[in-house]
Amino acid sequence: AQVDVVPAYQTVLPDGKSSGILQLFQEEAIDCLTFTSSSTVVNFFSMFNRDEILPLLNNVDIACIGPITAETAAKFGLKTAVMPSDYTIAALAKSICSHFQK
Length: 102
What we know:
There is one protein chain. By secondary structure, the chain is an alpha/beta fold. The protein contains 5 helices and 3 strands. Helix 4 (about 65-75) links the parallel strand 2 and strand 3 (about 80).
């Protein structure tokens, strides 16, 4: 058999946007931070000084698409507040809506 590996998506860091994002966290303008893969967690923390960003996330709900992503988030000091039972974007969005309707 011949196997072709075809990337379906690629996560990339935004160019020069971390200061604007940091300001939004400082202004408490973000209620929920979503992670759809472990690489998005790693990329997020590569954009900021961990000691600077973690305190700003105290009042931000963390949403992870599934347990592997939540485990990666936990390694960075985050507690997952929202995680769907089906590990899809649609289920994650629905879980976030349900979480904030409480």
